[in-house]
Design brief:
Radius of gyration: 18 Å
Distance between the termini: 50 Å
Helix content: 55-70%
Shape: elongated
Strand content: under 5%
């Protein structure tokens, strides 16, 4: 799953919707793992699988781009990113991050290559580790509809610990992972705006 997340985001970087192109290849496997978990959950037995499609959807919700949007909204010095943060935050809270992806832009923008391509994989690795050691419950396998807000979509996982993990991944880890690259881009944009004002 870590490799698939990397590949999916790499395709996204080149402007192709990686989720729609890459994930259908592995979705039958991941959903069958979810069905095993659902059957075990219904029978009151231990859940056999850590990962699955539900795990992927909740952990990589919004492509972890909400962190970038929050940085723009609360920490941007440049008018460009501050405005984009205001425009993107409401859809971002519902997992819709295309305004940030194409408004920044993240596609074909090597300034953001590392976080855009690797953040999902990092989140999956951390979530897997937390679940493996028992700090976070295994996911029930229940599938949610697209567009549920942060936290609410995680409730479909079947445990409060999953909700807490999603909030920490999206609101704490994601901004930290984006921050160095965002700060450089924001400083550059701010300098350009100041230069334009002086002229």
């Amino acid at each position: 799953m870590i490799f698939i997340c990397f590949l999916e985001q790499l395709v996204w970087f080149f402007g192709i919707h990686g989720t729609n192109v890459i994930i259908p290849i592995v979705m039958p496997i991941w959903m069958s793992m979810d069905m095993q978990n659902l059957q075990a959950w219904k029978a009151g037995k231990p859940l056999p699988n850590i990962t699955g499609y539900a795990f992927f959807n909740i952990v990589t919700w919004s492509g972890t781009a909400l962190g970038l949007i929050l940085l723009m909204l609360f920490f941007a010095k440049s008018k460009r990113y501050k405005t984009l943060g205001k425009l993107a935050v409401v859809p971002g809270l519902f997992g819709i991050t295309e305004p940030a992806i194409f408004g920044t832009p993240l596609v074909l923008n090597f300034d953001f290559f590392v976080p855009f391509v690797f953040n999902n994989a990092v989140s999956v690795a951390i979530a897997y580790g937390l679940t493996k050691i028992g700090l976070v419950a295994r996911f029930s396998g229940m599938q949610s509809v697209f567009g549920l807000p942060i936290g609410v979509i995680a409730s479909c996982g079947g445990s409060v610990s999953i909700i807490v993990m999603q909030l920490v991944l999206q609101l704490v880890l994601s901004p930290l992972l984006w921050y160095p690259w965002f700060r450089m881009a924001d400083n550059r944009a701010y300098a350009q705006e100041q230069a334009g004002t002086e002229k």
